[in-house]
Every structure is written in structure tokens, then in C-alpha cells.
Input
Amino acid sequence: MSAHVEITPETNIRALVADLPIAEEVLSEFGLHCAGCGVNKYETIAKGAEAHGLRVEPIVAALTQARLSGRVPTVMNEDKQPLRRAPGEFNRRARFRYVVPVMSGKGGVGKSLTTALFAVGLRRAGKKVGILDADITGPSIPRLFGLTEPLGLEADPTTPPGQQPKPLMVPATSRSAVEIVSSNLLTDKEDTAMIWRGPILSGVIRQFYEQALWSDLDYLLIDLPPGTSDAPLTVLQSLAVDGIVLVTMPQRLATMIVRKAANLVHQLKKPIVGVVENMSYFVAPDTGKKYDVFGPSYADQVAELAGAPVFARLPIDPTLVALADNGRVEEIDDPIVDTLAAHLEAAMAARPAKPAETISLL
Output
């Protein structure tokens, strides 16, 4: 047994697991399944516990016991249960510091993957993050994060005595503590088709926003469906949006449609804070030569129309595609996610100050 790394709340998770492999099993007992993901490169035990809504003291005690005994100790059930609100503080409200939809107008440009990369980067920066998957008929977020279990339900704890409590959705939690609500988590079969018309879609998005037990979050990212119809309009017109990220790709046709989305956002007088060009180029692994697979970049033209900077030009990366396809997007350990998060944080910091967004579950 190793005793090189001191076990304290400020101990880095990755360093501890490298020094004491059994620590990964102990952390998993508490639901901290992030010992193999890119987030823990920066995360301490205390930060990991906070992100998952756990008390840090039982985790440190269990890790210390495992080091001494060489076995995973028994963990009390109450120490495994996340507290989404501190006792006595739950009042049917969650506070979102920033609400940021990720939009394109064009399908197939990688909005969901871009949203996931933002989430991973923000978690690596120590932020509390949630994703509302508003692409009701084509949800991709659960697959990217490897989530398959249907959303749980909890009775509204603030229901007055004598009244029937209203069931509220409990967001799924990814390995690195990203909270996720998606239509693909309403059923245990991810290929079930959601055959809902426009007005119903709009109502479901509002329910995902208002009738889920979200934690207080630094960022609620909203993965919007393509187009400029009911679902995107519901988000842009009825939710307290702080800034919109546009996703485009080099293809001229895609750029034209993304520009339509930018014009819609301007008509609604909502702020666009940045542009991300996905599938911008490909670097051959054997020669290092760069290829513009879909043609020259139009990101600057889209950014000029949007009145916002280009956050990043994302390459076609087979490694990232493989991680995403296998539900392991959180394992990406690439500085591009830090770049995306840093640009978004800088853009939000430059926005006029506002109180943290508070929602009421009606």
C-alpha cells in the first residue's frame, strides 16, 4: 500500500487514484464515477463531493480506512445520497447564474457535441453545470454522456398538507456531475420515437426547465434543435437567456442557414456571445497536414453578422468521435474544452450584471 499522497479534502482525485488504485473503488461507492474522466485532472475530493452534493468528511474517512486496510469499507446509505438542497433551504426554486442556449438553425453541425464540450470544460473549471436537452425529437446528450436510466421522480416537498403532491423530475447526473434532463431519459429505450407536435414540444421544454429538481447551477446549457420554429422560439422568447452560442461549419449552405438563425436571434433582441465552427478541418495523423474537408472557413463572416467573436474552430477528431459514440465524452483530455469554457466565461463576465436567475416550479 502506498502512503505518498496525503488524503485531505484538497487532494487531487487523479493523483490519489494513481497513487492508491483502490481509491477509485471507494469513490465509486459514493457515486463519484469520475476517476477516469478528464474533469478529475483538476478536481479535488472536496470539489468532487460538492459537485455531486455529498459531504466530504465520510469520503475522506473511507479513503483513509481503505489505505489502512487495503479494502473498500462499508459506506452508509445516507453518505451516498446527494443533497440537491441543504436541509431547510429547498423552496421550489433553483438559481441559474447563466442560461446559455447552443443554437445553429442547421441540423448536423454538431450542436450537441459542442454543448457537451462546453459542459466538460466548465466542469474542469470547477463550475456547476446542467444541460437541458431541448432537441426533443432528436436528443443526443444522454448518449454522449453514457446515460441510459430513465429520470427519477420525486414528490414536490413543499406541497401544502392535505394536497396531492406534484411529481417533479430528478435530473440525471453524469460521471462528472453534469445534471441532464432529456426526452431520451423519459423511457428506458433510447430509440423510442417521441411523436409530439409543436405546441406539445414547447410545453415539454418548459416542463424540463421548470418542473425538474435542478441544483443551483453556474451554467444551464440548452441544446436547441435545428430550425427556427416552435422549440427554439419557446426557449428564446420565454426563458431568461443570458447569451447564445452559434454553431456553424465551413459548408456554404450550412453557413447560410446559420446566418438565418443569427438574424432570428437579433430580431428577438437576444445576445449572441460567440460562434463555434465545428468540423473546421482535419489534420492527417501520419503527415500532420491540414485539410479543409468541407471547404474554406466562413466562421469570420458568421461572427461578423452575429456581432460576436469566434470562440473556436473545432477539427474533425476521430478520437473525440469514438469517445462520444461510446458515451465517454467526459474522458476527453484536450485543451480545446478549456478554451471553449474560458471564452464563454469571459463573454458572460462582460455582460451587464444581473441577479442569479431564479425559477419557480409551477
In short: The longest helix spans residues 252-267. The chain has 13 helices and 13 strands.
